[in-house]
Amino acid sequence: MPGGPANTLRWGVRTARSTVELAHGDTAYTIHGQLGAPRSLLVFGGFHFPRNCDRFFAELGGRLGADFCVLTYDYYGRGDSADPGQRYDEALYLDQATQLLAKLELSGPLDLLGYSFGGNVVARFAAAQPERARSLTISGPFGAWAPFLAPARLLPRIGLGWLLDRLYWRMLRGELARGFDDPTTHAAVIEHMLAVELEIRGRDPGKLRRAILGTFRHFPTDTRAKIESLAGRELPILLVSGVRDSVCPIEHIRAMHASLSGSRLVELDANHNDPWLVEPMREQLLTALVEFLR
């Protein structure tokens, strides 16, 4: 059942975290700001869960001011959201976002932002429901311009998903460190990110494993056609990427920019897929997002 919102004042903005019951199971969400503000920014998070990025989006909500609320949520099977016990395909991801907005009575156009895997999801959402998009921001979109790597899709399909899962968690610290030019300088940030992921995974490892492997197995990648379908619409689009992002090559973002006439492109001197976790890129990105959204 939905839980009552836990209201706190964090990073200069009122933050409320709660859950709501949807058709495929409970969904956990966080509102930064005041629900019912004139404008709402819906964030489609990365492959796992947005908890590591909460502080950034709370600060973004604070800088945008009372005219905005910023809404983040846990995908099914991640964090505090339920495992729906069905295929993790495009329909499931889009239904979750659509039903969440309906439950929260958020109608009309919204500002949409998707980062990493969420860039793939948000592009599909905007293409499927163009009337819901006031603006679109895509940051380092994993699997949006080119498909997932074939081995990653093959292993769960032939019953070896457990191997992919085991390899990922063994390599996690190294992968997080690889996102920083100088990992030793950001050791505390890396350990915090790792601790958050491991703590949430530890609550129900099976749930997270099913969500990740199910997504590799069933979620369609190569969203290029969806992104190109946005061309010609009167839709403000901002594209963001680190120039050395190993998850989403900068060439992919530049190609998207070329295909979307009138879009804005911000290239950050960084190699992390979530640049808001890295100083001083964080401040640069906050400034760019506030300027674009306002």
TrEMBL record:
<feature type="domain" description="AB hydrolase-1">
    <location>
        <begin position="46"/>
        <end position="277"/>
    </location>
</feature>
<keyword id="KW-0456">Lyase</keyword>
<dbReference type="Pfam" id="PF12697">
    <property type="entry name" value="Abhydrolase_6"/>
</dbReference>
<protein>
    <submittedName>
        <fullName>2-succinyl-6-hydroxy-2, 4-cyclohexadiene-1-carboxylate synthase</fullName>
        <ecNumber>4.2.99.20</ecNumber>
    </submittedName>
</protein>
<dbReference type="InterPro" id="IPR000073">
    <property type="entry name" value="AB_hydrolase_1"/>
</dbReference>
<dbReference type="GO" id="GO:0070205">
    <property type="term" value="F:2-succinyl-6-hydroxy-2,4-cyclohexadiene-1-carboxylate synthase activity"/>
</dbReference>
<dbReference type="InterPro" id="IPR029058">
    <property type="entry name" value="AB_hydrolase_fold"/>
</dbReference>
<dbReference type="InterPro" id="IPR050471">
    <property type="entry name" value="AB_hydrolase"/>
</dbReference>
